[in-house]
Amino acid sequence: MKLKQLLESLPYTWLQGTLEQDVTGICIDSRNYHPQELFIAIQGTKIDSHQYIDEVIEKGCRVIIMEQDLPLPCQVTGILIENGRYILAKLCANFYHHPEKKMKLIGITGTSGKTTTSFLLKGLLEAGGYQVGLIGTNGAYFKDQKIKLKNTTPSSDELYALLAHFVEEKIEIAIIEVSSQALKQQRVEGLIFDEAIWTNLTKDHLGVNEHPDMEDYLKSKKKIFMQSRYALLNRDDPYYEAMKEDLMIPYHTFGFHEESDCRIIKTLSFFYKTHFKTQGILQEEFVLGFPGNYNVMNALGALLIAQRYHVDIDILQKKLPELKVEGRFEIYRDEGKTWIIDYAHNVDSYTQLMKTIQTFPFRRVFVVIGAGGNRSLTRRQEVMQVLDPYVDYFILTEDNSRQEPVEKIVDSLKAVIAPEKVMIEYHRDEAIKKAFLMSKRNDVILVVGKGHEDTIEREGQTICFNDGKYIKSLLNHPHL
Question: Are the C-beta atoms of residues 283 and 305 closer than 8 Å to each other?
Fold first, then answer.
């Protein structure tokens, strides 16, 4: 594609060179540069990629788009822009011939519940006969394929490339988990969501490289409605009034709240399933294949959107009990013990998880847990304080320790819980094995924090490990 075609309708200043050059791709990471790609330099929160301009020029780059008016060799075309993230998204839309306009788009945002809602919705829509793609925390899914992703919502170049691939695969509906950072950093710029679901908002993602305060977090989440045609809002959430303020698109509400447009009026939970009944814009009875009122809320959000796509109620009622989500209340049973793998990683998600666990008559509760390194000390200790009253034994271990010593992380966790409950195994497989050896019939073992993840970040290295796979191997070969 010619450079001038890529720049069509975009605001820019042409500094030097020719706009007639052929461009074969868009690069934002100098390490991944390929010949004939353009390089766009952006001042990020952690890295200013202008410092890598010389590197890509040495690799043969002849088109530089930048936010700073820097001198370039005469053979290089220079384009000056003001908002690199905005321009990146628009460039990618042009380069991939606007794949976002060739399918329906559903955006799901919220502190928690995005992944469960997205997988339930994908399963329900596919049962209704649609070809569905999904982009989110667990990866990108379409047909029988899976692509691993680094972020819940990828950068614009990766996101538009995925949507273009969806077009090639004849995907009709794309479900996208939209994080607050993606909205704040304009990764989804140019997308218009046919439907947007807001699941909840709780105190999380606050910090130096995330959101400075809840006001900024809320403001970032609300941006999704500015690029949506319809919204579905959690009526139960304390931030509901703030989220709906100045909303300019049609919307409905759902929840247990008596003023919900679709209200949950009855739930009956068993360990492997939950029966629930709704009234309002959807008046039916359903069965969900795992417990917890918070999961019922996720399911109802998915059901209401599937209903908008005219999936028959009979199909919804038949399919919902069959659906599971990897790493989200994932259950294994063996010799009277119950294992639960869950991605819970903040105060609210742990609170909901423990409320659900308390409704069942387990003898003892074991928790295998760590905490992400180089992250908020306060947040990790608040989680432990929430868990402490419900737990008989903690086995403290690694999570993604990153560059922080796991010993330091474990010390910070044990500092705020009863010492007689604490055991320590710094390697995650040994921690799970200790729980296996100590637990007895009618005990429950929660292995939390990593869910679906299949790697551990440890001291600059990436180690292959998946909680579910290891637990299954342990149950099948107990003498490992």
Answer: no
